[in-house]
Design a protein that fits this description.
The structure is a homodimer of 160-residue chains.
Chain A: H1 3-14, H2 19-25, H3 31-51, H4 54-61, E1 62-69, E2 76-77, H5 79-84, E3 91-101, E4 107-119, E5 125-138, E6 144-153
Parallel strand pairs in A: 1-6
Antiparallel strand pairs in A: 1-2, 3-4, 4-5, 5-6
Chain lengths: 160, 160
């Protein structure tokens, strides 16, 4: 049974609606699935930051030889040095927007927007907005780790 | 004449000193030469910025689908939109520090430090310091072009 017949068969048997969208949404494995895997890794990284803490999430996802280029600061080289500078008492959440992976599959990058939820000197909640680029390298065990993390400020979003 | 004999011949004829260092500095082609080619492209990009203007250099080195993530601003998508926002009357110089290229050779990144030489409201020269990441994609004609440009501020360097 070829693909078209399979879809027609599914439509007949399951009444359309359910089977058809999945059948048409199937994507070929390859470039797109690599990008999706890296994007999903960044999404899991962001979930870990909100679910535990930014420092714990960075401990999980930074490569040992990672470098951070912090806004207003000098470059920080090495996972341990980056973690030592992260502090606590804030929530860092982010939304990955795009991932790209080299054809060879070992180098990629993501970018997205972030929100830093903290408190001002009077204890009032404040939110700082920004955007980031992460460069990722696939490790020997197949896990993607961040080798470079850079962020900068964005204007507060305007009301919809 | 094999390579060793060539070097010995050069040493005899030209008296050493000149020929020997170059002969021994030869590096194998491959990963390192890819990184060096991209680093050199970023160095040429920086030279063009100082030699002409930042906007003219960006016009030469940005991919059409480039994106800029400017400090304090929202993402700017597309070469023409980036160029339209660049203005004039300043000198942007930078020093590339490192390049990495994927094994497949079509995707890479560089980072470095920059200086923005401008004038304050009273016409007095001021320098702003920062660092940047550029992500590069090799085009169909073999030329490296910037697909993502991001920068943020650094403290002024301390006196040596």
């Amino acid at each position: 049974m070829n693909k078209t017949l399979s879809v027609l068969f599914a439509l007949l048997v399951f009444g359309g609606g359910v089977a058809a969208p999945n059948a048409f949404a199937q994507k070929p494995a390859g470039k797109n699935s690599k990008q999706e895997a890296l994007l999903n890794t960044d999404i899991e990284f962001a979930k870990a930051s909100v679910g535990t803490s930014a420092a714990e999430a960075f401990a999980m996802y930074l490569a040992d030889d990672s470098m951070q280029l912090p806004a207003g600061g000098n470059p920080i080289v090495g996972k341990q040095a980056i973690l030592a500078g992260m502090g606590s008492g804030y929530v860092l959440s982010w939304e990955p927007k795009k991932a790209e992976v080299a054809k060879s599959g070992e180098l990629g990058w993501t970018w997205g927007t972030f929100e830093l939820h903290t408190k001002d000197a009077e204890g009032k909640p404040v939110v700082r907005y920004g955007k980031y680029v992460n460069i990722w390298r696939k490790q020997k065990d197949g896990a993607w780790k961040v080798i470079l993390d850079m962020g900068n400020a964005s204007p507060a979003p305007t009301a919809p």
